[in-house]
């Protein structure tokens, strides 16, 4: 499905791209624009050029979902190289410091315990080369101009950390740990690698990085850019999985009110939730993957509204009025791919 001309279409969907290493996230966006012939395209979480893996992309009016897709945990597999630090904290930067690697780096018991100790909440100083803006200026842009912006440490959480392997003990390659992390939104893996080296008393940087999940969206739901060009709309994801919120099905009358942005009384909606967040468990073409939610709505909770197998709006619960109010309406709806739930 190749369209040469960019513009606006009646497409509104989400896809997940397996971003290759060497491309920027913006490069991926431009490629998707060309594939669908739609200029309204945006990704929901930047990956560094070095990194590969899960990159959710919204197309058409679905780009308005971006605001509601932040805050999800992310999972990575990273190669942490010891003995050298770089100005970008990854292999793409210039080496600025080298140092001896302590023997315990090659001890599997020490390494496993060290990695496991990273689980929990902490403060993290973002890399100098990051997209964080201070005073309207990106830290990375200023760093390239030779001006270093003072960044503030941020709260992060490492939910899981597992040592996958130790390499380089025989001297045939640089000392390296392969580690799997699940971290909170806003956590920089490059900073984790840098700080691990500092704690161990030797410089370190990211040698390779692959994002394996963003919230409920995993690698097995991603397609390459080449595959996306071949299958087009067949790559559409269900936005309900990406949003991770509760949802409700609408009848004709309620859908008409929602399309006009009118509020709905809480009693008019029967909230549903998924039985499983695993895509492989939701492949059955029936409603077995959905159950009615017994939990009452919470103040300001976002829910998705579904009509004709499309997400046509996001509403928020107003406890003071016991009603749901419009936050975001999609006139043509965001398609749910081949999901029949």
TrEMBL record:
Gene of this entry: truB
One biological process GO term for this chain? tRNA pseudouridine synthesis
All copies of the Pseudouridine synthase II N-terminal domain together span: 33-189
According to the lineage, what is the superkingdom? Bacteria
In terms of SUPFAM superfamilies, this protein maps to: Pseudouridine synthase
This protein is called what? tRNA pseudouridine synthase B
Molecular-function GO term, any one: tRNA pseudouridine(55) synthase activity
Give UniProt keywords alphabetically: Isomerase, tRNA processing
Q: What does this protein do?
A: Responsible for synthesis of pseudouridine from uracil-55 in the psi GC loop of transfer RNAs.
Catalytic center residues = 48
**Which reaction is the catalytic activity of this chain?**
uridine(55) in tRNA = pseudouridine(55) in tRNA
User: What are the boundaries of the signal sequence?
Assistant: none
Keyword tRNA processing assigned to the entry: answer is yes
Q: What class of enzyme is it?
A: isomerase
Where is the tRNA pseudouridylate synthase B C-terminal domain positioned along the sequence?
190-231
Q: What is its EC number?
A: 5.4.99.25
The UniProt family comment states: Belongs to the pseudouridine synthase TruB family. Type 1 subfamily.
